[in-house]
Records
---
Amino acid sequence: MKKTFIVLSLVLGMAIPNIVFASLKIVTTTQDLAAIAKAIGGDYVNVKSLTPGTRDPHYAEAKPSMIRKVFRADLLLLIGAEMEVGWLPAVLRSSRNINVQLGSKGHLDLSKHVQLLGIPDAPVDRSMGDVHSEGNPHYWLDPQNGLKIAKAVSEKLAALDKEYALYYKNNFTKFEKTLTRKIVEWQESLSYLNGKQVVAYHTSLLYLANAFGFTIIKEVEPKPGISPSASHLSGLVSLIKQQNIKWLIMEPYYEKRSADFLNRKTGIKKVVIPQSVGARDKIKNYFDLFDAIVTAFNEAK
């Protein structure tokens, strides 16, 4: 029986050549980074995200499942700019994985590879609301930054896994070619937004505005993370009417009552922006994300 099993195994091994086994274990703090890492790493990486695209990664909580993932990781990819400051340090300490700690070769903070917007010009304190002292961390919502993220990831993978460095480089080239073409298509589709003013719920869509040429004139939140008061909403009603603002943009996890109130009072159109890969079931990759964002705008046109 044992001899038969060995022979069968050899036959099957010969019949199924070139089986690829993922080598690098990558853990990311968001599904956006996971999608880009998988696009670059392909068959030679195993990628897991610590947070789902349906949630705001600011407010994740350190969990044993996160610790187990980080413990086994060869590479940790994070958004940085204080996006994960409330939970990732605890996960890293508990994981006891020296390979992915701050300063190690397996720790990649992607905020260091983009030009951050919204950097405060004065010291930050809690009275200012949820303000990040290093700058606005939602930079993946500019697809040009997606290219920078992908390039940094490809270079890191090549450094950690030199045997497949050319494979990672080629995958980045494919990703770059596709994304560059798609950016032109997205900008053409949303050209009517260029130069327009919009209201946003939170400060998180600054990079999206920068990418597509519109201006966020005001937020529904009086300060980042602070719920709007009746007087603040009243002021927004006046502003929207005076400036003839047509769109209010927001992520799906924020309360809708304020946006619905502004819609009833002014007719402003509410555009719910899928902010991450995984925010909706059909958003499987980085290209899907911007396809869905463009669709959301066009449906409210």
---
Amino acid sequence: MSDGLFLAVLALGCLLYLGWGFRVLPKERWQILASVPLRMEPGGQWQGLNLTWYGLLSANAYWMAAALFWVLLRARGTQEMVILLFAALLLALCVPASSWMARLVEGKTATLTVGGAVFVGLLASPLALVLTQKILGVHIELLPLMAALGAAYALGEGLGRLACVSFGCCYGKPLEAAGPLTKKLFGRFHFAFAGATKKAAYAGNLEGRPLVPIQAITALIYLGVALAGSFLFLRQHYGAGFLLCVLGTQLWRVCSETLRCDWRGGGRLSAYQWMGLICIPFALLVSLVSPVPMEAPVRIAEGLGDLWQPAPLVALHCLWLGIFLFTGRSLVTGSTMQFHVHGDRI
């Protein structure tokens, strides 16, 4: 498979997936995936645990990001254990950071933040690289690793915006309060969330009202950044690819919050905007001080073929399950259930 065909197939598949999500996920039906009965209450009703589409869509996004990370690095010939260990170290920090960073910034125990997790992960990635080198006793070039990580992150967060559409979080400003240009741009394409359990409804009192589709805009921008970053990686422009991914995603993070209506903390700039701004000079510093990588062929067909080996498949599916269980167990919604027998079918 050629580089162009790989990127075209990836782009088409992601656009179809995003298009489906933009169309159906704002509806009430697409928030709760399933409910599991936990305990019976007096009167014969069961209290249940809700499993959410947020969790499933988040797990899908992590799976795709990790798969792209694997494919790009294996296409360059990076050792399997290097990829697995580095990714495991980074995820062991970033996944819980999505919870405790939200608790630190917003004071909420049932909220997750991708922005906070990305900030922690980016700053910790050189340390994860050093630990990987120490444990495996090998030398690892930093820039190719960071370039693949940047493209994978952009793809993962872009696709992960569908989880926000399903839950109704990270919602945009009401169109009625927007300027004339914004109203004109999004008069026909906007989100209107249905259901009292959507966050836009219970936190913003915005159920059914047309909102700026900030999640969709972010998803499309990040997808474009991921594709461009992957193209530069395949052309062995690792520093440029890494910088593009960090600048593209973090500058948009700073700008996008001006179109959001959910509470992001106090101050003229939110804590997440400051995190995005701090990531930019850090990325510039990494690009400037990192040694120039050795020339090595990048064969995308080999990276794709290697994805279907047992080690990456097991790791990816374990990651999917872990993320679903971490993000999919709803802490802000509940359910009651009653079971009965259909008398006419006995």
